Amino acid sequence: MIRSVIRGSGSALPGKAVTNADLAQRVDTSDEWIVERTGIKQRYIAGEGETTSTLATQAANKALEAAGIAAADIDLIVLATATPDQTFPATATQVQHALGCNGCIAFDVAAVCSGFLYALGTADSMLRTGMAKRALVIGAETFSRILDWEDRTTCVLFGDGAGAIVLEAQEVDADGPGVIDTKLHADGEHNELLYVDGGPSTTGTVGKLRMRGREVFRHAVVNLASVLEETLASSGFTADDIDWVVPHQANARILDATARKLGLPAEKIIVTVDQHANTSAASVPLAFDAGIRDGRIKAGDLVMFEAMGGGFTWGACLARM
Ligand code: UT7
Asked: Which pLDDT tens digit goes with each residue over 259-317?
């Protein structure tokens, strides 16, 4: 069978780390509140000259290097972001130009925090149908630019960064490597719980992020547990078969609650929320790259990716390394 095999990964963070104590000097908050409610200790914030496309390009270059594949051999770029450099053209085309692989397919996917899962599912389908042979799948964000820095209920939660993987279509056996199954969902009913209060077609402005955190939390735990169960059932695996869960990093308490619902031990979950905070579409590939580079995720491991975000959108993807 043809599967999309993960050949390499890379990530990039802005130069500036901002601690909870730094934020407490700016808004009415404390390190204690942020750590207890979210697990976040610091986040990286983009400075001058650092944009979604520059971070994405750095992450993509590292993924290509890890894969041992030249940019010229990439024929598909799918980039997930809710914070593009420009309303159009797609940030993927800027990354393509910076990498020097002009001419291949390149487009953005907008599914906010689930964006990387949507991008992965899209690229996997295109590789398996033969539209492309090697893909860069990127999640990249500069959420700091859409935060209301006066709103303590949201500004302490997010950070900037980018992560990327290289996928290659390969003929493999059923127990071989590659993406096994992806399940994606959306429910537009809950727009008002997590959204940006601007846009080109409404206000003509970029807008700022607004969130009713407690309600989002409740939906996140239910939707994530449900899509994880759905993905396991359709692929014929059980929670015990999973070596690593690479979740969207919104809140350490969501990771714990979801793991508990599925009976997954905490040691199997890759956690980076303490270091990166919530980087939306970048958080899953950032966490994956951390797990690869420190040697936890190894060849042959069964890895479950999962995410939930604005829309609502949510999804999961099971892959063999
Ligand atoms: O990535 C997309 C998905 N996003 C998420 O999954 C986020 C989901 N939600 C969450 O992670 C949590 O709901 C939050 C971390 C956003 C909030 O935690 P919570 O335990 O649900 O707190 P809360 O919103 O119920 O607020 C509790 C209290 C409030 O004070 P009162 O009304 O009880 O007096 C808030 O005003 O904490 C207060 N508060 C803060 N205090 C200090 C809210 N933000 C802060 C803050 N510092 N930064």
From this structure: 888 889 999 999 999 999 999 999 999 999 999 999 999 999 999 999 999 999 999 99
User: What is the fold, at CATH topology level, of the domain defined by 178-320?
Assistant: Peroxisomal Thiolase; Chain A, domain 1 (3.40.47)
Q: Using the mean position of ligand 1's atoms as its centre, give its distance from the Cα of residue 135 in Å.
A: 38
CA 285/CA 118 separation, integer angstroms: 13
For the CA of 248, the nearest atom of ligand 1: 1
What is the C-alpha to C-alpha distance for residues 129 and 3, in angstroms, rounded to an integer? 10
pTM for the full model? 0.98
Q: How many CB atoms lie within 10 A of CB 302?
A: 15
Please give the span between the terminal C-alpha atoms of the chain, in angstroms, as a whole number: 16
Task: State in Å: Cα 104 to ligand 1 middle.
Answer: 43
Q: What is the pLDDT of residues 20-70, one digit of tens each?
A: 999 999 999 999 999 999 999 999 999 999 999 999 999 999 999 999 999
Query: 2-171 falls under which CATH superfamily?
Result: Thiolase/Chalcone synthase (3.40.47.10)
Q: Is 248 a catalytic residue?
A: yes
Report d(CA 26, CA 151) in Å as an integer.
Answer: 10
- Cβ 227 under 6 angstroms from ligand 1: no
Nearest-CA residue for atom 44 of ligand 1? 153
